[in-house]
Design brief:
Layout lengths: L7 E3 L5 E3 L3 E2 L7 H12 L4 E3 L7 H11 L7 E6 L6 H15 L4 E6 L7 H13 L3 E7 L3 H10 L6 E5 L7 H9 L3 E5 L11 H10 L3 H11 L3 E2 L6 H6 L10 H8 L19
Parallel strand pairs: 3-4, 4-5, 5-6, 6-7, 7-8, 8-9, 9-10
Antiparallel strand pairs: 1-2
Helix pairs in contact: 1-2, 2-3, 3-4, 7-8
The chain binds NADP nicotinamide-adenine-dinucleotide phosphate.
The site of NADP nicotinamide-adenine-dinucleotide phosphate has 27 residues, from helix 9.
Length: about 280
């Protein structure tokens, strides 16, 4: 049971990944991202989730350096974008990301979306980066079960993480079961459904009962399910709120009630039908 902000899960290669991280999608590549990261690290976050397409890797690198916390205590994730997929383009994209981040190793490198024509070649490049010790762990995002089954036909190394849209309206139970039985950790993106869920009557009621907020109900639900979660905020008060999850516990009945909110509703694109060509 998650007890403190530095709690981790162990990936199938033995690497420990913090269960809570800061998402930085839509943060500008400037002082906003730098300040948000510094504030998050100050209040105890140790994991940052960025991507090449967020165009803020330079600011993330600056935030990490200015945080004053030793590099080895931080867990940094970035992702290869769709137009950079394929073997050599992925290796090149990795070098570009590392230069922007100003890092000499990465903790987790992810395939951003399953570009059907190229994800197998992309994965070969990810395996090479892993074998060379440039990344501590490799994984994917937005892979359905059929993508994972297909990838694993040719993969030498199984993905360590699958980062997917996951919140109470889209609890992804079947995919979670599949990943768990294949030793892949699940990481929730848009855990707060981009703010859309925060006036849901059940979450408001449970929050009132615990003297907490609806956002904290969702994030605690993630942690109690062993799901890695990466809420994004640029608001100092919310960055603190989203990490203040360790002085209460949801009962099995409350967990079940939140489980039952599922309607399979997405806020983002379905990975079988996405259109991001840029
Ligand atoms: N792999 C992928 O394809 C993928 C896709 C999407 C996202 N992601 C990752 O997942 C991270 C999180 O997802 P997300 O940014 O889409 O959505 P999210 O974390 O579900 O929601 C972020 C939104 O909620 C607001 N918010 C945060 N904490 C709050 C709180 N305690 N109370 C009220 N509002 C709150 C934020 O506002 P303020 O910032 O204004 O405070 C922001 O508008 C991203 O940043 C990114 O790192 C990955």
């Amino acid at each position: 049971m998650a007890k403190q902000i530095t709690d981790t899960c162990t990936l199938h290669n033995g690497i420990k990944m913090p269960l809570l991280g800061l998402g930085v999608y839509k943060m500008e590549d400037n002082e906003q991202a730098v300040d948000s990261i510094k504030h998050a690290v100050k209040v105890g976050y140790r994991s940052i989730d960025t991507a090449a397409i967020y165009k803020n890797e330079t600011a993330v690198g600056k935030g990490i350096k200015e945080s004053g916390v030793p590099r080895e205590e931080l867990f940094i994730t970035t992702k290869v974008w769709n137009s950079d997929q394929g073997y050599q383009p992925t290796l090149d994209a990795f070098e570009t990301s590392m230069k922007k981040l100003g890092l000499d190793y990465l903790d987790l490198y992810l395939i951003h979306w399953p570009v059907v024509e190229s994800y197998k070649e992309t994965w070969k490049a990810m395996e090479k980066l892993y074998e060379e010790g440039k990344v501590k762990a490799i994984g994917v995002c937005n892979f359905h079960q059929h993508h994972l089954e297909d990838l694993m036909k040719s993969a030498v190394i199984k993905p360590m993480v699958n980062q997917i849209e996951l919140h109470p309206l889209l609890n992804q139970q079947e995919l979670r079961d599949f990943c768990t039985s294949n030793e892949m950790a699940i990481e929730a993106w848009s855990p707060l459904a981009r703010g859309r869920l925060l006036d849901h009557p059940l979450l408001v009621e449970l929050a009132g009962k615990h003297g907490k907020t609806p956002a904290q109900m969702i994030l605690r639900w993630d942690l109690q399910h062993g799901i890695i979660t990466i809420p994004k905020s640029v608001t100092p008060r919310r960055i603190e709120e989203n990490a203040d999850l360790f002085d209460f516990e949801l009962s099995p009945e409350e967990m079940k009630l939140i489980d039952e909110m599922n309607t399979n509703e997405r806020t983002g694109q379905n990975p079988d039908n996405f259109h991001f060509d840029f």
